Amino acid sequence: MANIVKVGMADLNVCKSPDGITTLGLGSCVGICIRDPVAKIGGLAHAMLPDSTQIENNSNRFKFADTGIEDLVNKLIAMGGRKARFEAKIAGGAQMFAFQNKSDMVRVGERNVEASKKKLRELGIPLKAQDTGLNYGRTIVFYPETGDLIIRSAGRPEKTI
Amino acid sequence: MAENISFQKVTTEYYDVLKELGNIGAGNATTALAQMLQAKVDMKVPQVRLLDFKDVGEVMGGEEQIVVGIYLAVEGDITGSIMFVLEQHAGRELVSKLMGTPPAEGDFNEMELSALKEIGNIITGAYLNSLAQMTNLKVLPSVPDLSIDMLNAILSVPAIEFGIIGDQILLIQTVFTDDMDLNGYFILMPDLESYSKMLGALGISL
After folding, report:
1. How large is the average pLDDT for residues A9-28?
2. Who among B1, B107, B149 is closest to A96 (CB)?
3. CA-based max dimension of chain A
4. Which of A12, A138, B83, B100 is the most exposed place for a label (fewest CB within 10 A)?
5. CATH number for the domain whose boundaries are A4-160
6. CA proximity to B128, closest of B76, B66, B199
7. Do the Cβ atoms of B127 and B31 come closer than 8 Å?
8. Strand residue runs (E) in A8-124
9. pTM here?
């Protein structure tokens, strides 16, 4: 029986096939899933903010899309993954409330998604699929074996990307 | 991040302020709720909780439980935003009491949603009034915005705001009781420059 590894807010973790990895109730945060399909390992970072260089208190690297992705990639490499084989899927980055119009909060979901895509591009990791934006929360489960990313939301049918 | 203040320091002082605010605010909210519902409403002693981001959902009763989030901007002398999070069944219970109808199943309809907003308005207004009284500062709430979704998705909004300065979220848990316990969480997110203003008004210097 496969285990499901749980990742909290501003956290990241990795797993080996057949295990899966999950984070519950992504809102404006973004979940970045990366796997090595040959080594059959993968991981998930749950980032809250786009850019560590914009924030003074940036010691928690997992909190940011840029440093979170770097650390996730390094962790997978340390486990025997090869960066050239890595592929990614992302989900989340919703706008949970219509206003959220404070300067720091403007389109933070969208900016989280953009920052994640930018970092993945920089690292040369292809983005295979994304389910982002809109105005609802997402629970995601990622399986490094198949690369399937399952998305569950309240009052919506489950989908796999 | 214009001001360079230590959130650790803010957190300790602020914690005590929030405790006080929790007591007075929840008291006022209870009175306001009782008036609105024309029923007796009691409350338990509010708890101020400082939670790590990664634990917050679990501690508050499950990351995926459906909750009602009411979110407002605050303007005036103190700027920032506030959120009130109410468990879905508590929301249903309050709406049914307010509207004099039995608790409904399924999604809230338009009417029930506006009743929920009104409840949110009254509860958050009671906390903000207490804050204004305590500090003698002007605190003006915006029109509330409402979202019903998974707890962690709702909490991502205040968590991100706290994330700019730290790795924890501060909230006041209030349990209103009538026939049953209604769990609500009040989260105050002042802008960074408002912390010192607020604490200064209370005679605490940073």
Report:
1. 94
2. B149
3. 46
4. B100
5. 3.30.1330.200
6. B76
7. no
8. 11-16, 20-26, 30-36, 41-47, 87-92
9. 0.88
Taking CA B142 as the corner, what is the angle to CA B11 and CA B138, rounded to the nearest 5 degrees? 60
**Class in CATH terms, B7-200:** alpha beta
Taking the C-alpha atoms of residue B156 and residue A111, their distance in angstroms, rounded to an integer, is: 14
Identify the active-site residue in A26, A29, A94, A149. Answer: A29
Instruction: From chain B, pick out residues whose CB is under 8 angstroms from the CB of A10.
Output: 53-54, 159, 163, 167
Predicted confidence (pLDDT) per residue in B27-50, tens digit:
888 888 888 888 787 877 778 877
Give the helix/strand (H/E) hosting B132.
helix B110-135
- Tokens encoding A14: 């990795």
Does residue A42 carry a pLDDT above 70? Answer: yes
Q: Tell me: the pLDDT tens digits for B95-140?
A: 888 888 887 777 788 888 888 888 888 888 888 888 888 888 888 8
- What gap in Å lies between CA A127 and CA B13, rounded to an integer? 45
Residue with tokens 């650790």: B8
